[in-house]
Amino acid sequence: MPADLGKVSFVRFVWAVLAFVLAAAMIGAGIAQRTVFQGPKTQTESVSLSQDTPYVLVDGSVLNSLPGAQTLRAEGSGTIFAAYGRTADVKAWLSDAEYVQVGVGENGALTTSEVQPTATPAPTTDDTTDTTATDAAAAATRDPIGSDLWLDEFQQDDELVAPLQLPSDMSVLIAGDGTSPAPADISVSWPIGNATPWAGPLIAGGALLMAVGVFLYILGIRHVRRSKGPRRKGLPLPVTEPIDLATAEADKGVISSSASRRSLGRGRRTMLVPLVAVSALLVTGCSADAWPTLGGTATPTPSASVIVPEGQQSPAVTEAQAERILARVADTVAEADAASDQALASTRLDGAMLAERTTNYTLRSSIADYAALPAVQAKPLRIVLPVAYDAWPRTVMTVVDDQADKVSSIMMLTQADPWSAFKLTYMANLEASTELPELAAPYVGAPQVPPGSDFLTLAPDKVAAAYADILNNGDASTSLSLFDADSDSFRTGVAADRQKRLDEFNQTAADTGSLTFESSAGSQPPLALATLESGAIVAVNINETDTVKPTNADAVIKLTNNPTVKALVGAEQSATGFTTTYSDQLFFYVPGQGSTEKIRLLGASSHILDAKVIP
Predict the structure, then answer these.
(1) Alpha carbon distances (Å) from 398 to 434, 510, 527, 531
(2) 3-state helix, strand, coil in the chain (%, to 5)
(3) HSE-up of residue 477 (Cα within 13 Å, Cβ side)
(4) CA nearest neighbour of 474 among 456, 452, 496
(5) Cys-Cys crosslink for 420: which of 44, 161, 416, 483, Cβ 3.0 to 4.6 Å?
(6) Chain mean position to CA 91
(7) Is a pLDDT exceeding 60 seen at residue 509?
(8) Can you tell me the distance from the alpha carbon of 23 to that of 272, in angstroms, rounded to the nearest whole number?
């Protein structure tokens, strides 16, 4: 073989070896970055509590002492409960109880401090007991599960692991069952940025170099074989004769043929293929953080700016929180309706809503086919307008579309204090053609308008009396000019119903009795939330009372054809007469001072409230 051809083959083999060495170094470096040289993926701060309090508050400063998502862990015996919400709300819930607060010290380590009750215990109705001690004991054993203040809650046995991503103004409450001491071992973990952006390129580059080395090695082998010329003849060889296979097999057994040189060459190449395959598997197994980020960071699309009025407080609830609260209300009321359970209904209803339900339960227990009141609809939730208020009581307005009945319900829910559940106070059906005024976004909320506010065309605490005067006097009412009559189908319906009943009564009893109607403001206080046009949505309660009594000393009023009143009063006749009261729940849009608009009725509902014998 010529010297220059041998040199070419040698160079190819040298380059092949160098490619193998570099490939091994690059692949090894890439694997090392993902294994032995890769640091921990999380950083954990932990604390062990020595106090035996039933509640622990992990402050938002702890959760945000390091960037990134948080993972909360709590270990103890039995069921462990955790919930998170705004720090102010969590502290308000804990204000009448003793608890441990976990914070961050000056050196970054977690610290614990025991917090004593600051709220004055609410007085009880029993004057013979020590109210302070009783209420303090109740606060120490209060079950935190299911509070409407929590944005979310978790429950696990023995060890609780909760993935979180909370801002600094939110905190976490940890407890057991509200009686036993809270879990003592608490830790918070954060992910650490340990990406290896060059591991992927090193492994991929090493695989490519390994493939190049294999190719150069094969070329070198092929060049060596082809560069061999014909050999010189040697001494004369003896004449060969063909082998008799049959004789050879008989004499020496079966002769095995050896593999040809070409087959051996193929065998050596197949030994190199798995090396490339292994490198490819290593590359495909690398995650996204094993590669550099190219092309820069995507610029987010700017969204419309929402200007929050200066000094406005935070909204009482979030949209998801309102949806969960309304679902709880609907489920509880449905259960109470099925069992006619007034005590259960009182946990989620208040005011006129509870009074109407109580009356309905009484009638259903006495009249077999008496219909139940409309159910509380929870979804689809179309509008949520929470009050922007950090203290209590709190109010939330919602609008729910009933897809089955094609009716929308407008509701007002109130929460009396941090420990109470939200209760449904007002509910009415929206008028078919109702257009609601422009409202603030749920994450902004609306200020609550005081009952005696002078910034509206009519103060909220005067709306009920003014509208009641229109129901009583019609076009002769002095308040008629304040209200929009064209969109008010409720007033038209009330007037038509009264006239119909009066005509029927006069056909048989005009000479012996009288039937009169009177509307008045109900006992339920108004609720008003501001709109964006400086107006307000105002919910009020009006009572409509029908009075039937004899005008002849010898006459009596019989309830032969009125099983409803008969069931409520427990009598069939009276010489003095009866009163029947209906409860109207009405929602109005009241414009601001200086507006040319009139007060518009948005929604209404009416149900029987009570019936009595005239004394």
Answers:
(1) 15, 46, 13, 14
(2) 35, 25, 40
(3) 19
(4) 496
(5) 416
(6) 21
(7) yes
(8) 13
The Cα 175–Cα 186 span in angstroms is: 11
How confident is the model over 303-347, as pLDDT tens digits?
445 566 667 899 999 999 999 999 999 999 999 999 999 999 999
Cβ contact 59:168 at 8 Å: no
C-alpha separations of 480 from 467, 551, 595 in Å: 8, 33, 17
Tokens 């060495």, located at residue:
21
pLDDT at 141: 59
First-to-last C-alpha distance (Å) of the chain? 135
Maximum CA extent, the chain: 161
Question: Is residue 190 classed as helix, strand or coil in its secondary structure?
Answer: strand
345-349: long-range contacts (C-beta < 8 A, 24 or more apart)?
347/421, 347/423, 348/421, 348/422, 348/423, 348/424, 349/423, 349/424, 349/425
User: Which residues have C-beta within 8 Å of that of residue 367, sequence separation ≥ 6?
Assistant: 563, 564, 567
CA distance to 388, 530, 606, per residue, from 538 (Å): 16, 9, 17
Residue 222 has pLDDT above 80, yes or no: no
Q: Which amino acid is at 450?
A: P
3-34 vs 261-284: helix crossing angle, rounded to 10: 30
Global pTM? 0.77
> What's the rounded Cα separation, in Å, for the pair 192 and 66?
9
Instruction: Judge whether 580 and 557 are in contact, CB under 8 Å.
Output: no
Of 401, 351, 599, 356, the closest CA to residue 491 belongs to 599
Dihedral (CA of 266, 271, 272, 278) sign:
positive
* Mean pLDDT of the 456-478 span: 97
Question: CA 392, CA 404: separation in Å to the nearest integer?
Answer: 36
C-alpha distance from residue 611 to each of 12, 135, 495, 569, 577 (Å): 109, 38, 21, 6, 11
For the chain, counts of helices (H) and of strands (E) = 13, 19
Work out the pLDDT band at 405, boundaries 50, 70, 90: low
Neighbours of 469 (CB within 10 A): 18
Which ranges constitute the DSSP H helices of 76-232?
87-93, 131-140, 199-227
Closest CA to 143 of 170, 177, 116: 177
- For 230, the token pair is 């014909």
How many C-beta atoms lie closer than 10 Å to residue 175's C-beta? 27
* Residue 382: how many other CB atoms lie within 10 Å: 13
Q: How far apart are CA 398 and CA 384, in angstroms?
A: 5
Cβ–Cβ < 8 Å for 67, 216: no
Residue 308: the pLDDT is 62
Q: Of 519, 574, 517, 581, nearest to 550 (Cα)?
A: 574
Identify which of 10-14, 257-261, 400-404 has the greatest average pLDDT: 400-404
SS3 558: strand
